[in-house]
Each structure stands twice: as C-alpha cells, then as structure tokens.
Amino acid sequence: MWRPPQRIRYEATAGRVASAAEAAASRLFSPVAIGPTTLEQRTWVPAMVPWRATEDGYVTEDVIDWYERFARGQPGAIVLEATGIRDVPSGPLLRIGHDRFLPGLRRLVETVRKASEGRTRLFVQLIDFLAVRRRPEAKKFLERFLVVADRHRAALGDPSLTEADVRARLVAMRDDELKSVLAPDEWEALQFGYRERVNDMHLPHIRNLPQVLPGLFAEAALRAEAAGFDGIELHYAHAYTMSSFLSRTNKRTDGYGGSLENRVRLPLEVFAEIRRRVSEKFAVGVRFLADECIADGSDVGDASHFAVAFAGAGIDFISLSRGGKFDDAKQPSVGDAVYPYTGRSGYECMPQFISDERGPFGRNAEPTATIRKAVRDAGSRVPIVCTGGIHNFEMAEDYLAREVCDIVGAARQSLADPDWFHKIRLGLGSEVRVCEYTNYCEGLDQKHKPVTCQLWDKLASADGERRTPDGKRRMTAPAWQPPE
Ligand SMILES: Cc1cc2nc3c(=O)[nH]c(=O)nc-3n(C[C@H](O)[C@H](O)[C@H](O)COP(=O)(O)O)c2cc1C
Ligand code: SF4
Description:
Elements: E1 8-9, H1 20-24, E2 32-34, E3 37-39, E4 43-45, H2 61-72, E5 77-84, H3 102-115, E6 121-127, H4 138-145, H5 150-156, H6 163-171, H7 175-181, H8 184-192, H9 204-207, H10 209-227, E7 231-235, H11 241-246, H12 260-263, H13 265-277, E8 283-289, H14 300-313, E9 318-321, H15 344-349, E10 354-355, H16 365-377, E11 384-387, H17 393-401, E12 407-409, H18 412-416, H19 420-425, H20 440-446
Parallel strand pairs: 4-5, 4-12, 5-6, 6-7, 7-8, 8-9, 9-11, 11-12
Antiparallel strand pairs: 1-10, 2-3
This protein binds flavin mononucleotide and iron/sulfur cluster.
C-alpha cells in the first residue's frame, strides 16, 4: 500500500475513559432515527468483506460466526459486507441475486437479532461491479488476447503484415517500443489487467447499465426485506459501478455522465426504483465518497451536491467513506488483479499508522462535516455516518459534539475489538483492545484470504475456537464476558 513519504508514526490509544454514568448520558449512546427504524445508539460497524462465503456466494457457518461475534458487542447497527446483486459467479463474495440465497441470509439475520438481544439494526450493503481481469503474462497477452488491428500494422510501418507477424513483432519489442504501438487501453490491459469502465459505451452491457441496474438493485432490495434485514446500504463508494457513475471521470454522453446532474441521475433512479418497490418499514441508505482523492476525481463539493440530491429524494441515511479507487492503484504482479486500496486514494480510505502531519485518524472528519452542513442547509435532517480512523470514546463523542456526523462508524476498531462499544457503555473503556492500524487485516482482504485481526492471536488461546485452514489464526475475536 502507498504510504505518505513523511512516514510519521502514530499510536491509537483508548483516550480518556468515561464512567458508565458518563457513557449513559453521552451522545454516542443516545438513540437516532434512521428513516423508518431507530438505532439504540449511534455506533455503527461499516461493511467489511471477511471472505467467508462459499465460492458460489452462500452464507457459511463462518459467515454466521463472524456476524454473531460483532452482534454480541451490541452496536447500534451492523452493515453486512458488500453483497453482489447479480446472479453471476463472483468468487467467495456473498450474493443476493437470486431467491436461493435467502435461507442463509435469513439465518444470518436471526443470528444477529439473537446475539445482540434485538439491540442491533442490520443492513446489507448491495454492490454491483464491472469486470476486472488479472494482469496477464505479456507474451500470452500479445499472442492471444490482443485484438490485432490495422492501426498496429500502421504503427509497425507495414500494412501487409499477417496477424501472426504482428504478434511476433510485438512479442519481440521492448516496453517503451510496445507502449508507442499499443493504444492506451491496450497498454493498461497489459500492465494492470483488463478492466471495464462505465465509459465503455461500445460494449452493449455497459451501455445498458442505466436500463438494467434499477431493476437488479430493486430485486436485491426486495430479497433483503424478505430475509428480514432492517434495510439496505447502496454501495456507491470506492471502485465499483455506481461510484464510477458519480465520478468526475464518468464521461458518458447518454445523459448519465459529464455534469453533476447527469452523474447522479442513475444513482437516484436506482434509489427511486427501490423505494417504489420495498415497504415503508424498510430503510434505504447510501454509502459514497466524501472525496475520491484522485487527480481529476470528484471532491467534497461534488459529494455535497450528491448528498443534497439523495437527501431531497428521501434517502434514509448517508454514510461517507473516502478514496479506494482503481485509478491510482499500484501495478499488480502478473497473475494478480489490481486492488483499489494500494494507491494514495487507498490510503485515504484505510489510513495506516504511518502517516503525514495530518495523521491517520481524522481524515474524513472535516469533509463529512462540510457535506453534513450542506445537507442541513438544504433543510434535510437525514443522519450522516462518518468513518475513518475512529477508535475511542473521546473521539467519537467529539465528532458528535462538533456535528461532524450523527452516527460514528468504526470498521477496523470494531474488528480489533467487537465489544468495544459494550465495554465503553459499561465504563470499562480501559479494557478496549485498541486497533493498531497496521492494516494486516486489509492485506488479507487484498489476497481474498479470511480476514482476521493480528491482535486476536496475541491473546491466550481458548480451546475449541475456529481457526483458519492453516491453523495459524483465530477466525473470530476472543470471547469477552461483561462482569456480572
Ligand atoms: C477487511 C476490510 C474489508 C472492507 N470491506 C468493505 C466493504 O465491503 N464495503 C465498504 O464499503 N467498505 C469496506 N471496507 C472499508 C471500511 O468499511 C471502512 O470504510 C474503512 O476501513 C475505514 O474505516 P476504519 O478506519 O474505521 O477502518 C473494508 C475495510 C476492511 C478493513
Ligand atoms: S489487523 Fe487488527 S490491529 Fe491491525 S489494522 Fe486490522 S483491525 Fe487493526
């Protein structure tokens, strides 16, 4: 992962420990309405893919265990990991693109209800993504995948070359020569792996996204309601389809790209179709980027515009992340796929303890506050979730007091210690296992390996806990019992 060149080291701490009475009177542990439902407290576990589904997208015992463990900490809400809306093979990513996924999802909902004693609201994050291929071996790409055209012959200075000749000449070239012969998208496919974009209007399935996505998202939302979730979170963040529609890099000319109004058109149409079809009791929220953090990407001003548009359309919550784009991702090794959290924008999404003068902990606060203010100025009370480096009570309470946000999201801190909210509420903040922001977990995510926290394995091992297939790591955080 990219890291700021300043390389200043930061340490997260438990901060000032509140008494149980102070916690009980705090903003953090006060309720907040989310559309048709209410969170008992303003604590939120954002979506995290733990790579525990089956290869064909079903809920497994490991998925159940994972969410049961979070639910025992009784946060206000848990957002279930990014879950694919299409009925297509997607590797071990949870799926909701067909009714056959419902029994597993229902069990998951019931497990969270039981483990949280009914205190935690459960949303599922709905995702659509475009094709991303692994970086090919150069010879294989030039001999098999490249579509040879007359412009290659022209660039090689001989229009009479056969296809086999062109391929042979390209294979023999140095990189700098090759770069001048290949088109920019061919060069990128060779260096990073082929990747579809919303701008690929020559591909019918990309051109038709505005026609198919509202229906696909709505069908998935209906299934989520049937499975018993309290609502959904539309994944309009990071490197995926809907975020690409919102991006300034979206240059579509069909009314769905270019201007701010056009870029938010499909995201709003998806929301409208879902709202039309799910019941009034079902919450529909959105996660998108406060800032894409890439050159020529959408910034806080764009995000404020989108937030006001979503709020005006009646969205039930807005959760803000940042960065995590393909555009500035590192070149993958041959055989690997490009990963959107390896560049500068990836750092902004999941900042690590090695940082710059701004540090890793509050990078999303001011952008979120700006967006929230724009929404409030537009007359909407929609709750805003802020996430990024939040790890103690003091910080969370400060965000709420300063009106940065209405709900506090903590991903890695909740991974490090799923009981941290519960401990704070009981006045036991000094017992919280504070995240070290090493991004060990994120490295596992990158390799699509079961995500775990390195702090869990530093603790004494209890008998009977589930371990990763190599036996080296705990699959869930160690158990914790509140004192009697
Ligand atoms: C292992 C892992 C998986 C993640 N998966 C998702 C995901 O499925 N959807 C999403 O919107 N964000 C995902 N994220 C990003 C987090 O939700 C969060 O925005 C990010 O980690 C920054 O918050 P934090 O500093 O509290 O960890 C993931 C993060 C981690 C560490
Ligand atoms: S592995 Fe654990 S301590 Fe390290 S960043 Fe992830 S959650 Fe935090």
